[in-house]
Specification:
seven-stranded parallel sheet, 40 strands, 37% helix, Ankyrin_rpt-contain_sf, protease
C-alpha cells in the first residue's frame, strides 16, 4: 500500500527526513526565521487581545507574505503545529495559557485562514494532511471548526472545498488520509465531503470519494474495508476419515477424496464505528452533487507484486473484492499451517494428491462460511444491490473478479408442473455458486420428490435401519408399508403441500442467508400449508412478498417477513379473510408491519356481487390507513392513524403491466420506483406513513395460472458419415488421463452464448463451470430467466450437446440471451444488447472459444445496439479469444446484414451435407468453413429417441467442438511455448488449421476432414503403453501444420 511521504528522493537517492528547516523565510519586512516566530508565540496568551495584537503587529508582514506562498520549501507554521511530535504545543494545558497550541491555532485560523492552503513543497501536502498523518486529532478538529463550524447548515465555504479536494503528490486527499490513519474525525470529514458542491473555489472538482492514490490506485473505501490485524479469524480443520484410512484408500484407482471439514470457531465482530464509517463512505458519494461517473465502489486498486501470489486471482480489486481477498489470505495461511502438520511424513505422491484434492475444498468451504456472515461484506452487498438494481454490469463488477461471479437470483420458471428431484439440485450446485443475498427467488408450481416419513425418519432411512435389524424380511418395503408411511406423514404435517420447503432448505445449505424478493406460484388445488410456508422462509428476511396463495394469513407473512416492504395479496372474495387482513392484528397493525409501504391486491369476484366486493375493498383501504389503537401482547399501543392525510384512493386499475412470458408464469407485477436516496448526515427515524394500496380484478387468478409446454421428438436411426469418422478421435480425447487436467493452461473453456442449457441432463453433469443470464424475466425487473433452464425448443441445449459430442473434455460457460418479438418477418429475435453483454461476460471469464449459433439480421450497421455488439466482438478479438458464428441461412437472396458474421471478427460457419457440399440455404460467399449441418442426428438422453437437426447453427456448434478438440490436443502434446506460438485462438490461424484438415478432401478445402488424425483411431493409440508413440505422431501432425501454414501465408 502507498505510504504517506513527507519528502521525495533527492538527486543522490537518499531520502530526506520529514524535518523542518529553520532557514530564513523571506518576507517583504526583512529576514525572519520561522523558529523565531514560533518561539515568540509560546510566550503569548492569545485569549488576551493586548498580547495577540502586539504579536500580530510585530509579525504581520511575515504572516501575510511568507506563509501565503503556494509552495513553501519547509512548510509554514501550521505544518509545524500539525506535527504531533512537537509536544511543546500539545501538552495538557488550560485554554489561554501561554504556549497552548489550541489557542494559537484558533487565532491563526481566525486571522490567516489562507495558511491551511499552503503546500509543503516536497510532496504538496497541506497542514491538514500532516495532522491526519500524525494523528493529531486536536489540530484536525480546530482546523475544521475554523473553516466550517460543526453542525453548521450553511453551504460549505470555498476554502473548505479547496482543502478537502486538495491532493498531495501521491494523489491522497484529506478523506483518504483520515480513513487510512483511522482519524477520530473521519465521519465528520466524510459528511463534509458529501456537502461540498460542484464548485470548489471556482475550480470544477472531481469525486473525492473515488480519488485513487498514485502508488496503488486505492481509494478511501479500500482502506475502510480492508481486513485489519485486530480482526481475528480462528478456523478449525478436521481430517475425516482418519488419515491412515485415506492413505490406504488413495492407492485405489481414481478415488475421490473428501477429507477436510472445517468450521469457523471464532470471528471477532466488526466495530460499530467502523461499520458506520463504511456506510457513510458508500452512501455519501451517491448523494453529493458530482458530475463524475466514477464511483469508489467500482474503483480498482493494484495489489503489490511482492505479495503471496499463490492465492492472488486478480491484480486489481474493487473495495469489496479487497476484503474478500483478505479473508482468503487469512484462511489460506491457516490451511497451510494445518497441511504442514497433517501431511508430514507421507510419501511424496500421496502427499501431493491429498493436498491437491483438499486445498480448494478447504478454502471454498471456509470462505463460504465467512463470506455470508461478515458484517462489512453483507453491508456492501446490500448497498450494491440497492444502488445498481438496474445496472447489472456495475453490480457484477463491484462484487466479483472476472470469471468468479456468483448468482444473485434463483429461478425455476421454465420447469412449471415438473417433478423436481434431489439429484437435479445436486447437479445444479456443481456449477451454481450462490451469493449469500439473493435479489429474487421465483419458483413455479413444482412437485418435489421426497421420501415419505415414518416414525420421524424418511422411508429411505427407515429402510436402511430395517436392513440392519434382525427383523428385516426382504430387500424392499412392501407397497402397503410405503402407503402407510405417507398416511402417517400427512397426519403429522397436515394435508397441505410441503414441496418447496426442501428447495429453500437447499438454498440455505448453499449459504443463502437473505432473499430480498420471493415469487412463488402456489395455485394448485392443494397449496402449501401455512406451516410449510413459514418453515420455507424462516429467517430469510424477505422484503417483497409475492407467494401466490389465495387468502394467505397475515400472521404467516409477519412471522417470516417482519421487515416486509411490499406484499401481494390474492383474495378469493371471502369476507372473513378480508376482515383478518384489515383487523388490528393484520396489516392495519403498524407496530407489526413497521416497514410496509405497498399492498398489491388481486381479487376474484367469487360468489359475491360486484358492489359487495368493492365495499369490502373500500373498507380495507380505510382501515389499513386509519386503524384504531390496538393493545399488543407486549402491552404497547399502536395507532395506524399516525399519517399526514387520509387514505390513498387510487383507481382500481393499478399502474402495472400485464406481463406474461411464453409459459405464462407471471402476470400483473408493478414496476417498483427507485428507492429514495437519503442523506447519511441526518439521523434516521421511523415515520409511519400511508401504505399505498393498489387493487385489480383478476378472475380465476389468471395472472399466475398457466399450462406447461412440451416438445416432441423425431425418430431417426441414421448417422452422419462425418460424425462417425470423428467419433474415434473423440474417444481418444476422452481416454486421456492428464495429470494436469485441473491446470487452466491445459483445459479449454468454451462459452456457449444461446438460450440456456437444460442442466438436468446427464451429459452436462460436471461439464458446466459457470453461467449467467442476460434474459430479463417478464414482469420482474430484478430477476432473470435462469441459464440452466433451456427454452421450449432447447436450442442452446442441442448446441451444447453437439459441442460435447465432438469435444467431451470441454468446460462450458453458459450465457442466456434475451429475446424480443417484432423481428424480421415478425419472428422473435435476439437482442444485440444482451449479446454484447454476454460476450463481455465471456471475456471476463477468460474463455478460449465463444460459440454463437445464431444471427441478428439488420438492414443497417449503424444502430447503437449493433455498435455495442461490434465493440464487444472487437474486445474479444483483442483478448485473443476464438469466436465462431453461424453464417446466414437466408440463401443468396437476402440483402440484410447478419451479425455477428458481418463484423468480420469471427469464423463464419456454414452448413454442409455429410460429404461436404454446401447446403442450398447457405449464401455462396458469406462463409469461411463448412461443416455438417443437414439432418445431423443427436440423442440428448438415453430415454429419448435421436432427433435430426439442420442449419448453420448446428454446423457452428460442431465447429466449436472441433476447434476445442484441436486446441486441447495441441496443449496436450506440445510444450506451452510451442502451442502458444501456434496462436490457434486467433481466427486466421484456426481457419488455416481447419483448411489444413480439409486440404485432402475430395470436395472442398473448406470442409475439414478427420483423415489427418486417423492415427488416433487405432485401438493401439488408446493404450497406455503406446502413449509415447501417439505423442510423437501428434507432434508430427502439428509440425506438418506449421509447414502448411507457412506455405499458405506465402500464397
Amino acid at each position: 500500500m502507498a505510504q504517506f511521504r513527507l519528502s521525495r528522493f533527492d538527486d543522490s537517492g537518499d531520502e530526506e527526513q520529514p524535518t523542518f528547516s529553520t532557514n530564513t523565510l523571506q518576507g517583504s519586512g526583512g529576514a525572519i526565521k520561522q523558529s523565531t516566530v514560533l518561539e515568540a508565540a509560546k510566550a503569548v496568551d492569545f485569549s488576551k487581545p493586548d498580547q495577540s495584537v502586539a504579536f500580530e503587529k510585530k509579525y504581520r508582514e511575515f504572516l501575510n507574505t511568507a506563509n501565503n506562498e503556494r509552495t513553501s520549501t519547509s512548510g509554514n507554521i501550521l505544518h509545524k503545529l500539525a506535527d504531533k511530535s512537537e509536544d511543546d504545543w500539545w501538552q495538557d494545558k488550560h485554554e489561554g495559557e501561554a504556549g497552548d497550541g489550541r489557542s494559537f491555532l484558533r487565532w491563526l485560523l481566525k486571522n490567516y485562514e489562507h495558511m491551511l492552503k499552503c503546500e509543503y513543497k516536497k510532496d504538496d501536502s497541506i497542514p491538514l494532511h500532516f495532522a491526519l498523518y500524525h494523528e493529531n486529532h486536536a489540530f484536525v478538529k480546530i482546523a475544521l471548526d475554523g473553516v466550517e463550524p460543526e453542525d453548521s447548515e450553511i453551504a460549505p465555504s470555498s476554502t473548505l472545498g479547496q482543502i478537502l479536494q486538495h491532493r498531495n503528490r501521491d494523489d491522497e486527499t484529506c478523506l483518504y488520509l483520515a480513513v487510512k490513519h483511522n482519524s477520530e474525525h473521519v465521519n465528520r470529514i466524510i459528511k463534509l465531503c458529501a456537502r461540498i458542491g460542484n464548485e470548489a473555489g471556482g475550480v470544477r472538482r472531481s469525486n473525492v470519494f473515488a480519488q485513487q492514490s498514485l502508488a496503488d490506485k486505492s481509494t478511501a473505501l479500500h482502506h475502510a474495508v480492508m481486513l485489519r490485524q485486530e480482526e481475528t479469524l480462528a478456523i478449525n480443520f478436521v481430517t475425516d476419515p482418519p488419515l491412515a484410512t485415506i492413505v490406504n484408500e488413495s492407492m485405489k484407482a481414481d478415488m475421490r477424496l473428501e477429507l477436510i471439514s472445517l468450521q469457523v470457531v471464532n470471528k471477532s465482530p466488526v466495530d460499530e464505528k467502523r461499520l458506520e464509517m463504511v456506510k457513510l463512505l458508500m452512501e455519501s458519494e451517491f448523494i453529493q452533487n458530482t458530475a463524475s461517473n466514477v464511483r469508489a465502489i467500482l474503483a480498482r486498486m493494484n495489489y503489490s507484486e511482492d505479495k503471496d501470489k499463490k492465492h492472488n486471482k486478480a491484480l486489481n480489486l474493487t473495495p469489496f473484492q479487497t476484503r474478500v481477498e483478505g479473508l482468503v489470505s487469512r484462511i489460506w495461511k491457516a490451511y497451510r499451517a494445518h497441511a504442514m502438520t497433517e501431511f508430514r511424513g507421507l510419501p511424496g505422491p500421496i502427499k501431493d494428491k491429498l493436498k491437491k484434492t483438499a486445498r480448494e475444498q478447504a478454502l471454498q468451504t471456509a470462505l463460504a462460511e465467512v463470506y455470508g456472515t461478515d458484517e462489512i461484506l453483507t453491508m456492501m452487498k446490500l448497498f450494491c444491490i440497492d444502488k445498481f438494481r438496474t445496472n447489472r454490469k456495475n453490480l457484477l463488477q463491484a462484487l466479483y473478479a472476472p470469471g468468479e461471479e456468483r448468482h444473485l437470483e434463483f429461478s425455476l420458471s421454465g420447469l412449471r408442473g415438473q417433478t423436481l428431484t434431489k439429484d437435479y439440485l445436486k447437479r445444479l450446485v456443481k456449477h451454481l455458486k450462490f451469493e449469500s443475498i439473493l435479489i429474487c427467488v421465483s419458483l413455479p408450481s413444482l412437485i418435489f420428490e421426497t421420501d415419505p416419513v415414518e416414525n420421524g425418519f424418511p422411508i429411505s432411512q427407515a429402510n436402511s435401519n430395517a436392513r440392519s435389524g434382525a427383523n428385516y424380511a426382504g430387500e424392499r418395503r412392501s407397497e402397503a408399508v410405503v402407503a402407510n408411511a405417507k398416511t402417517n406423514e400427512a397426519m403429522m404435517n397436515g394435508k397441505g403441500r410441503r414441496d418447496l420447503v426442501s428447495v429453500f432448505q437447499w438454498l440455505r445449505e448453499n449459504h443463502v442467508r437473505t432473499i430480498k424478493r420471493v415469487v412463488v406460484i402456489d395455485d394448485s388445488d392443494r397449496p402449501h400449508s401455512d406451516d410449510a410456508i413459514e418453515q420455507a422462509l424462516m429467517n430469510l428476511d424477505v422484503e417483497i412478498w409475492d407467494w401466490k396463495k389465495p387468502d394467505i394469513c397475515s400472521d404467516v407473512i409477519y412471522s417470516v417477513a417482519p421487515n416486509v416492504r411490499e406484499v401481494s395479496l390474492y383474495w378469493s372474495g371471502n369476507a372473513a379473510t378480508m376482515l383478518g387482513w384489515y383487523s388490528n392484528e393484520g396489516f392495519a397493525n403498524r407496530e407489526k408491519f413497521r416497514k410496509l409501504q405497498k399492498i398489491l391486491l388481486y381479487y376474484d369476484m367469487g360468489l359475491e356481487s360486484k358492489q359487495r366486493v368493492e365495499n369490502q375493498i373500500k373498507r380495507f383501504r380505510e382501515r389499513i390507513n386509519h386503524s384504531e389503537p390496538a393493545q399488543l401482547p407486549n402491552g404497547k399501543l399502536t395507532n395506524g392513524n399516525l399519517t399526514n392525510g387520509g387514505p390513498t384512493h387510487e383507481p382500481h386499475q393499478p399502474d402495472t403491466e400485464n406481463h406474461q412470458n411464453p409459459d405464462g408464469d407471471y402476470g400483473m407485477v408493478e414496476r417498483l420506483p427507485a428507492p429514495v436516496q437519503t442523506s447519511p448526515t441526518t439521523e434516521t427515524t421511523t415515520e409511519i406513513t400511508n401504505i399505498t394500496i393498489i387493487d385489480a380484478e383478476d378472475p380465476g387468478f389468471r395472472s399466475f395460472r398457466s399450462s406447461f409446454k412440451t416438445i416432441g421428438t423425431k425418430s431417426s436411426q441414421n448417422d452422419n458419415k462425418w460424425m462417425q469418422d470423428i467419433q474415434p478421435i473423440c474417444k481418444f480425447i476422452r481416454s486421456i488421463k492428464d495429470s494436469n487436467e485441473a491446470d487452466d493452461d491445459k483445459t479449454v473453456k468454451i462459452a456457449i452464448i444461446d438460450d440456456g442449457i437444460d442442466a438436468c441432463l446427464d451429459r452436462f453433469d460436471g461439464k458446466i463451470v459457470s453461467g449467467a443470464s442476460f434474459c430479463s424475466q417478464n414482469g420482474l425487473d430484478d430477476s432473470t430467466v435462469p441459464y440452466f433452464v433451456s427454452t421450449s425448443d432447447q436450442h442452446g441445449t442441442i448446441m451444447a450437446a453437439f459441442i460435447l459430442r465432438i469435444f467431451p473434455r470441454a468446460r462450458l460457460y453458459v450465457a442466456k440471451l434475451d429475446e424480443r418479438s417484432g423481428g424480421v418477418h415478425g419472428k422473435r429475435h435476439i437482442t444485440a444488447r444482451s449479446a454484447a453483454d454476454a460476450i463481455e461476460w465471456a471475456i471476463r471469464c477468460n474463455v478460449d472459444i465463444i460459440s454463437m449459433s445464431w444471427t441478428i439480421e439488420k438492414s443497417s450497421k449503424s444502430s447503437e445496439e449493433i455498435s455495442g455488439l461490434t465493440s464487444a466482438l472487437n474486445n474479444a478479438k483483442q483478448k485473443g479469444i476464438l469466436m465462431l458464428c453461424a453464417a446466414s441461412d437466408q440463401g443468396n437472396s437476402t440483402h440484410l446484414f447478419c451479425f455477428p458474421a458481418a463484423s468480420h471478427h469471427c469464423v463464419r460457419v456454414g452448413a454442409s451435407t455429410g460429404t461436404g457440399e454446401r447446403c442450398d440455404w447457405v449464401h455462396k460467399e458469406d462463409y469461411d468453413i463448412l461443416l455438417p449441418g443437414e439432418n445431423v442426428p443427436l440423442n440428448l438422453s438415453l430415454d429419448r429417441l435421436p432427433t435430426e437437426h439442420s442449419g448453420s447453427s448446428v454446423a457452428t456448434a460442431i465447429a466449436s467442438g472441433l476447434c476445442g478438440a484441436l486446441l486441447y490436443l495441441a496443449r496436450y502434446a506440445l510444450d506451452k511455448n510451442k502451442w502458444e506460438a501456434l496462436k490457434l485462438t486467433e481466427s486466421n490461424e484456426m481457419l488455416t488449421m481447419l483448411r489444413f484438415l480439409g486440404s485432402y478432401g475430395p470436395a472442398n478445402s473448406k470442409f475439414p476432414l478427420a483423415d489427418q488424425l486417423a492415427f488416433l483411431r487405432n485401438k493401439d493409440a488408446q493404450r497406455t503403453r503406446d502413449k509415447a508413440e501417439v505423442d510423437k505422431r501428434l507432434k508430427d501432425f502439428f509440425k506438418q501444420f506449421e509447414e502448411y501454414s507457412v506455405k499458405a501465408k506465402k500464397g
